Amino acid sequence: MLAAWFRLKYSHVVDGALAASAPVLQFPGYTGCDVFNQIVTKAFRTGGEACPKSIRRSWDAITNLASSSEGLSFLSNTMRLCKPLKVAGEADDLKGWLNEVYGNLAMANYPYPASFLAPMPGYPVKVLCSHLTDATLPDKQLITALFNAVSVYFNYTGDVKCLNVSQATTGALSDEGWGYQACTEMVMPLCADGIDDMFEPTKWDYQQFSDDCYKKWSVRPRPGWIPLYYGGVNITSSSNIIFSNGDLDPWSGGGILKSLSDSLIAIIIKGGAHHLDLRAKNKDDPSSVVEAREQEVKIIGQWIAEAQARKLGSRDAAIRTWTEKRMASVKHVRL
Question: Is pLDDT above 60 for 171?
């Protein structure tokens, strides 16, 4: 996003931008709050239909188990929670963690092992889904399968002793910074209906979101600031921006998916996850991202050639102007 916005605001500084996986329209009034979770679900269907169905069922299974002390103990032990659940309401923290993890998995569903958000195998969604093949399992068996599945995300290395549901990323990439951004300028509504997606039905409640932001950060969000400052969809007066999106990246729903002009170009990467085209070349890269990179290199090369021609033309024009003024001055002196 920043690359696109930088080009929009400072076109005198940069001659072009590659905005990979840039959800520049993922804001109130531009993209539905349900789109993100629908694409996450689409990504999980690549692991088989039973996978999203099992996840959809798991929300009720957690609620059912959390309704008793025995069930809370089972959830805590089976999911190996660092902080055991004491009351039913604390199960919401587990659900919140799972919600975020599924989105992260879809984002980082790369075709080779990577550690963008956490150490994971290649195509981690399919690996996770290999543990969720029966959506009809009883609650306890389903939760056991769910633990094995999400371990692909939070404990692929086998080094993690317990599950900390307060942190959905590992290593240096903390999610705290993003939380503050979302509570100030990057207000991106998310919701789910549990029908067209695999999530527990959740409505977008701006007031609740704002109150939560104030409770944690003592700030209130500005939901209309980004579209106002950067123009929303009204960017056709700009030029030389590539908007690339993987069609299985959840953020692609808020991206530019169709070219807006000859120089505001959309590139869709079939089967691609979050900014796959910006990652280093890999022997397991699908042909779709190889072709996308080739197209990007060609377009950027054209921009560079055009910029150099403009600068050369400006220099030649400046030299001619200087020479003409100098000759006129010399002529005037001689006269």
Answer: no
The token pair that represents 140 in the structure block: 């306890």
Q: How far apart are CA 81 and CA 102, in angstroms?
A: 18
Angle (nearest 5°) at CA 301 between 299 and 291: 50
Gap between the Cα atoms of 163 and 254, Å rounded = 31
Q: Which pair of structure tokens corresponds to residue 197? A: 């997606």
DSSP per residue over 246-311, as a string? ETT-GGGGGS--S--SSSEEEEEETT--TTGGGSPP-TT--HHHHHHHHHHHHHHHHHHHHHHHHH
> What mean pLDDT is predicted for residues 309-321?
73
Mean pLDDT of 68-86: 97
285 φ, ψ (degrees, to nearest 5): -60, 135
Q: How confident is the model at residue 176 (pLDDT cuts 50, 70, 90)?
A: confident
Query: Contact, 55 vs 208, CB < 8 A?
Result: no
pLDDT at 324 over 80: no
DSSP string, 193-252: -SSSSSSPPB---HHHHHHHHHHHHS----TTHHHHHH-TT--TT---EEEEEETT-GGG
Q: What is the dihedral of CA 175, 178, 180, 185, to 10 degrees?
A: -170
Q: What is the pTM of this model?
A: 0.90
Site of tokens 């080009």: 7
Please list the alpha-helical segments (H only) found in 79-123: 91-107
What are residue 192's DSSP bridge partners? 202
* Separation CA 123–CA 292 (nearest Å): 19
Confidence (pLDDT) at 178: 83
| % of the chain exceeding 90 in pLDDT | 84
Task: Enter the DSSP assignment of 163.
Answer: B
Distance CA 119, CA 261 (A): 39
